[in-house]
Amino acid sequence: MKEHLVELGVELVDYDHDNPRIAKALEKYGSLTAERIAFALKSATENGSASSYNNLRDSILASRGIMAPITVIARDGRYTCIDGNTRLAIYKELLKTDERKEVDWSKIKATVLQEYSQTDIEKIRVSAHLVGSREWPAYEKARYLYHLRNQEFMDYAEIIALCGGRRNDIERQIDAYHDMNEYYRDKVDEDAEFQIDRFSGFVEVQKPGIKDSIFSAGFTMDDFGSWIRYGNIYRLADVRQLPRVLENEDAREIFVKGGPKSIEKASQHLDLEESKNKPFNRKTTLETATMYQLVEVLLRRISDISYSEVRALKNRESDNSEEQIRSIESLSEQLKRLLDDLVD
Fold this sequence. Notes:
CATH class of the domain at 2-117: Alpha Beta
Low-confidence stretches: 45-50
CATH superfamily of the domain at 2-117: Conserved hypothetical protein from pyrococcus furiosus pfu- 392566-001, ParB domain
Helix content: 55-70%
Number of helices: 17
Strand content: 5-15%
């Protein structure tokens, strides 16, 4: 693969329709205009806001242009942007809206690829967004893995060589992407109700024993999609509670008929029943709790953490913030080592 740096007219550069954020818009709108693509790029952030887009635009304005060139390939007498679609969208926007005319937004720095293969293109996408600093949200990562597997027809060894990771994890993400679109997205009344932040629930349901518990209790994946859609399962980590809830008749009824957050009520019912049946009802402390009890409590605590707590920790607002962050990092490292031992 060869490359050279040039300045290109932004009107000669097209968006990459295989970019997962643009592919999401293509699914939603059916056909794409430049306006719809720009809107998709602007709104495609992890939390659904446009703050990342606006921050990048402000940075480009302050720097009077981009520092890192976009990457393009020549196609049908034009150019397709395979990395830097958001930067391209900002240039196209500023070309129309920046009335100061202090910067020529009609031209953008670009690296043009020559003598490239499809694998070269995928490597650039992966390095920029799948394992890089400008990561796609989890749902869009899974969409890309699905694209590599089912449209580029890569085998798992090729995908792992390209993206890294373990086969089991990649399979789960691909299956989760399929299930979310089959049993959740396609069932919402309006596309505006489709929330990609519910994706981790569909990753959880791929884990051993959970789908089996759904089918064994006489339910389907359509039912699971409804439980996610209508909030019976609100904290997505609670998906892992399904086997114990569905196998108990009373808990199952509380969950299925209880409405929003009903899996929490069903779990509490089971906890109460189990505590009654213990020969000694000794109060559990941090010291006497099992590792699995601690994990469940920690999962709930993380799910309920407020934005203000995260911001305070990120901004090091307390004297022990650094120590707390180091503790979280140590926990993450220990859990990763444990998982590496447990998962093939």
